Amino acid sequence: MVLKIFFPQCCNRADSGLLVGRWISSQDSAVVLAVIHYPFIPGHVKQYIQQVSAEQTSVSAQVCIRDTFSPRLCLSCIVMTFESQKEQEEEEEEKVIFVHYEQRKVMLSQLHPIENGVPDPITAPLSELRQMFQTVANSQPLFFLDRYDDGPLKSTHWQTEGREASIIVELLKQACIPLCMLIGWLLSIWTWICNIRIFSLYPLRFLSSKLSTCVQLSYRTEYMRLLSSPKPAAGHTQFMRKANIVVSFLVDVALGMLLIWWLYRDNHITMLANTLVPAADHVAKELDELLQWLMGAPAGLKMNRALDQVLGRFFLYHIHLWISYIHLMSPFIEGILWYGGLSACLGLTFALSLLSDMVALLTFHIYCFYVYGARLYCLKIYGLSSLWRLFRGKKWNVLRQRVDSCSYDMDQLFIGTLLFTVLLFLLPTTALYYLVFTLLRLLVVLFQGVLHLSVDFINSFPLFAMSLRITRPYRLAEGVKFRVLCEEPGTALHLLMEINPLKCSAVVQTYRTPTYSCYPKDSWAALVKKLFVGELIYPWRHKTTKTD
Amino acid sequence: MTGGDYSIGAEQNPISGRLMGPDSAPGPAVPWRKVLWECQPFPDNYVDQRFLEELRRNEGIRQYRYWAVVKEAGFVGERLSCVAIFITIWLYIEQGLLSPETLLWTSLVCALLGYGLHQALTSQVESGCEPRTRLADLQSATIFLSFTFGFSPVLKTLTESVSTDTVYAMSAFMLLAHLVSFPYAHPSPPGSFSLNAALFASVCLASRLPGALHTFAMLSCALLVFALWPCLLQRLRENAPSQFTGVCVGVCIGGVGGLGSQWPGGAVLLALALWSVTLFCPLLLVRLQRQKDNIHGPWDEAEIHEDLSRL
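^ Those are the sequences you sent over. The predicted structure of the assembly is below.
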């Protein structure tokens, strides 16, 4: 039978008095919370304890005497109390362990993994550590009395020297309410604007779901709504989530302001605008050269000259159209950049989303080429596979989803074979064009993916939790570790309990803000198969949020 | 199992030469019967001297007669010669000795003649399946011709960038596949794979010719030779067997002769192939039939007395 007594370190230097705490019978341990000094009137003590117990049910007083100079007396007292609790018939050798803990740290820390809700004490008993932490955390009312009060009782606990409070925290708490009201009011206006009829037309809705700026806006709106509720956070998780959101938002805006400061000085915008049109021209020229190379005999491949010329001229004409469009737009580019740069005041994520959208718009012609090439190739592959079946005298049975033999007519055989030959010999040409444009498209997709990933990182990284972990590691506890203070045979074992902070990776995993993150839709094998057959690929997929 | 060695466990009585059972002793008074359900005083694997008496040998064997087999094999030879004729025509057109117009007109005339013959032969015999109307035939012909004519410029440029050797190799391979997979027993309707292989080979060859009209002419000729000619031959075989043989021989001679005018080595090879397929292989077949020794059941259970550990 091992008896564990959790003793606060701040009470080591206290005068003699009553130990007040909680007895956890299922674990045979006692958690001492405070010491009430002599002289005291037992009636007052009882009243006080009852008053405190009425608010929190975890405190119960164990009357025992503590003497500064003989800890052994205390020990025997507690043992006697223990014995009076349990009637034991056998005389067992009792082992006692004194665990010294730092009360302030244990009170403020949160044990992980966090259990939400109230677990059923019968079917799912809490672990001892958790019960101990909960006891200390729930004993807030006990710690209101300090040394300088004029009440009838004097007690010693971690707040004896005066209650700790920080001015900044108090000011922030006062400023919260009007701020929340302001945010709520702004949000209601914004939501009203968004819900105007004209914006729910189909093309606009489709566009807004594709543009990443709009997605980012809706995501921010949702989280602002979460912040603007005037109720205080219920529970540790919600508090951390709100804090993370606020800190992420502030960091985002700060980075955005930095970007604006850099962008708008020294005429950077004009420089950017002046390099944009020549860059687009350069890209078009490179594409032109690429197509000319394809129209020749690239890498010694056997291309069909006629088809080659047709496809090459078609794509060249498209590029010509695109360049004319860019030149048409060139006077407005500076203005667009100037106003677009202002969006960074909402945050760096907005600027990055805007950049991603602009890249998508500027490389729209590559996307078009990719779609043409992919569709042509897909058609060809599909036709070839079907005609190959005809070649062997078989047919695809749609009902049974299998290949059956079939007796074809002479006409069907003849025409089928002719078409098969034609498609087979034109395959290398089409495949090459498809390959080239798919590679270009994948490059663009990769670049956009990098932008989205960085936006996602800024959105979801729990900065507040991470900084808490670095500056005050005892707040996020994974467990405890014990250090032996005194181990002599014949006396009780003295251990010091220290809090084991949560690992950084676990911090990120637990407190990560859920976002509309982009993640790859298909596995590698499925992607390669899609590329081979010619299906259009959209490698990134957005997780739909509740507002969609 | 080689013949004559089925006496493992049953020893031959040297005096009477009759087979005796494994015991070599006269059995009890009750005779042994070959039944399954009766409890007899003999062990389960006992067989008396009637061991393997009911064995049948070479049952259902066909007696081939040499000239009948030659006649059937003639069909194979005829197919071979058809392919040779097709290649000859191609060689002629490629070297410019035959103009595409001539070929087109000849093909048309042949097709009409063949169609007339086909119809004449069909009306003689009542065929059970529904007859194709003249309109359906005209429709098919129009589809063929228009499609081929429309596609011939595309087909002409198909193999421009492919090297000559590759084209020849592909065509040879496909023609061989055509010969191998041809349904010699029922040429009408023609088998899908063989017809498609032949058409693929003809497209490959036709795309090597100098003009679009050449391609068109070549393809029409291919259609005639590979798709329509076997149907006519089948009709002929059904209705006039003696004429059929004559036609086969004629085609073979024509093939050898035609090939010989352009490529004498090929003609020799063809003649050799025809001789071996038509005359030599049937001889082998008839000769080897005598060596046939199949045994069919019913079987009896044997008991092995020899010491197998030395094997």
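Residues 344 and 350 of chain A are 6 Å apart (CA to CA). The first strand of chain A starts at residue 2 and ends at 8.

Shout if you want it in another format.
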